[in-house]
TrEMBL record:
InterPro entries: CcoP_N, CcoP_N_sf, Cyt_c-like_dom, Cyt_c-like_dom_sf, Cyt_c_oxidase_cbb3_su3, Cytochrome_c_Oxidase_Subunit. The gene is ccoP. C-type cytochrome. Part of the cbb3-type cytochrome c oxidase complex. Component of the cbb3-type cytochrome c oxidase. Its main location: membrane. The keyword Secreted does not apply. This is Cbb3-type cytochrome c oxidase subunit. Belongs to the CcoP / FixP family. Keywords: Cell inner membrane, Cell membrane, Electron transport, Heme, Hydrogen ion transport, Ion transport, Iron, Membrane, Metal-binding, Oxidoreductase, Repeat, Respiratory chain, Transmembrane, Transmembrane helix, Transport. Heme c 1 binds at residues 142, 145-146, 273.
Amino acid sequence: MSDFVSDSWHYYVAGLVVLSLIFCAWILISNMTRRKPGPVELQDHVWDETLQEYNNPLPRWWLYLFWLTLAFAVAYFVLYPGLGRWQGKLGWSSSGQYKAEVATVNEQIGPIYRKFLSQDVRAVSLDPEARAMGQRLFLTYCAQCHGSDAGGNKGFPNLTDSDWLHGGEPENIRTTIENGRIGVMAPFGEALGSENVKDVANYVRSLSGLAHDALRAQRGRQVFADNCVACHGPEGKGNQTVGAPNLTDRTWLWGSTEATIIETVTYGRVNQMPSFKTLLGDEKIHLLTAYVLSLSAGKDAQTR
C-alpha cells in the first residue's frame, strides 16, 4: 500500500476490510437458528413447477466451518499486511521475502561466481559449467529481445554470428552489457527528399549485391558520399566506434528490402540496449560476457 497518495485511502481500505468481516459475522449470527419442534415449513418459492425447499436452519458443522474461516481471516490480517498500510505483526512483505531468498541463494553460489570472476573471460567461455550458468542468465535477462537461441529479432542483433555493431572482443561485449548502448540513425527524409532517399536506398542495396536500379544507385552514390560516410565510412563498411552498421554484407538489423531501407533513411532508427550493471553486478556480467562470447566462438569478427 506504499503507493497511496494520502492517508484517506489507508483508512478506506482498512475500513472496508473490517466492515466486510463484521458483515460476514452478522450473516453467520443471523443464520444460527435452531430447528423448531414439529413439522418443518416449506419455503414459499417454487422451482421447476413443483420443487420446494424446507425451511431448515444451516447445519451446525457448516456454520462452524464458516466461523473457522472468519477466525482465520482475522488472524491473517493481524499477522500479515492487508489493512491499508498495516504491515502485520510479523512484518512480512513480498519484497522482503524476495530479498531474503536472493541473499540465501547468493550466499550459496557466491563462491562459484567469484571463482569464475578471477578467470579470464575466454577461459570461462570454454568452461561447460560457466556456459550453463551464463545461458540461464541469458534466458532470464536477454532472451526477451535477442531470442532464446540468441538469433535476434527485427531490430535486435543476432549474437550467434560474427557481425558486431560495437565489436566482438570480450571488453566490447562487457561494456555493452554493463553500460548499455543507444544506437541512433538520424532521419534524412526531409533533408534529402523522396527521390534522393530512393536513390541512396538503391545504392545501399548495391553495396551488398542486392537487386537494385542501376541508374538510381549511380545517383545515390553521391548522395551517400555527401550524407552517410561520416558514420558508415566511404565504402559503407560501418564504424564500431559509433555502432554504425556495415552496409556491404548480408546482415540487416531492420531488413534489406527497398521499402525498409527507404523507411530507415526517411524516419531514422533509435535502438537502445539497457544497462545491466546495477541489476547484475560484476560476477554475473562476467559470466554473461563469457556466454555471449561463446555463441560466436571460432567465427571471424566483422563489423556490421
